[in-house]
Amino acid sequence: MKQFFIRRWFLICLAVVLVAGMTLYEPLAPLASNRRLRESLVAAVLFVMALPLEASAMWRSLRRPWAPMLAVAVNYGLLPAFTWLVALFVSDGVAAGLYIAAATPCTLASASVWTRRAGGNDAAAILVTILTNVSCFVVTPLWLLALTGKQVSSETLDVRAMIVKLLWLVVLPMAAAQLLRVAAPVRRWATARKTPLGRVGSVACLTMVCAAHNRSAGVQSGQRLFGRGFGLNSVREV
């Protein structure tokens, strides 16, 4: 039983925080709307993910970018195309949701956490995060135009603000972590504790799933299922 929990603790905790967010959605709602907390968690996850990462690993991913480019091709090529096939067999409303989900960029924090948990290439995951988020303001509207035949625009879409946000939440925490690694004691400490640091990132992601996100799966599901005033109109808004 102990080994079962050790190997699957993240999935078990994921189920627990989803239920907690759904049942405690009212007291957790302020956390879900706290933008500063949300962005701080994202930055913290990328910092602890980058701290044990050798700079040479990132350099190798840049010199041989086949793995990141394959992931980008799947994210922005294969997935939207496959979604178009699936959408032929579902309702228009479901198809629209699938199109949006398929055309969005890689997540900022959870991609690195899941990659490390799977024993994958951390540097490639971080590079994919940067590439897909930098290009999303061009690629996502084009895919949605191709899939739906409708031009997608938003008054809140600010390319400069998106790039600044990416630099602030992704590049700066990673750069700070790599600068700290210049000190030999910090480098040895972080390298020896790669797994515990990965767990810290996992816990931060669980927090975001539960409540600390404006589209938190836990809190938003609780609002939809049990809250008042979250009926058909609110679903249409999403």
Proportion of strand residues = under 5%
Helix and strand string, N-terminal first?
HHHHHHHHHHHHH
Write down the overall geometry: globular
Rg (CA only): 19 Å
Instruction: Please count the helical segments.
Output: 13
Largest sheet: none
Explained architecture:
By secondary structure, the protein is an all-alpha fold. Helix content is 79%, strand content 0%. The chain contains 13 helices and no strands. It has helices at 2-23, 25-32, 35-50, 55-63, 66-87, 92-103, 110-117, 122-148, 159-180, 184-192, 194-210, 217-226, 232-237. Helix 1 crosses helix 12, helix 2 (25-32) crosses helix 12 and helix 8 (122-148) packs antiparallel against helix 9 (159-180). Mean pLDDT is 78; it is low at 228-238.
Task: Sum up the structure in keywords.
mainly alpha, 238 residues, 13 helices
Short description:
With 238 residues, the chain is an all-alpha fold. The chain has helices at 2-23, 25-32, 35-50, 55-63, 66-87, 92-103, 110-117, 122-148, 159-180, 184-192, 194-210, 217-226, 232-237.
Task: Compile the SSE list and pairings.
Elements lengths: L1 H22 L1 H8 L2 H16 L4 H9 L2 H22 L4 H12 L6 H8 L4 H27 L10 H22 L3 H9 L1 H17 L6 H10 L5 H6 L1
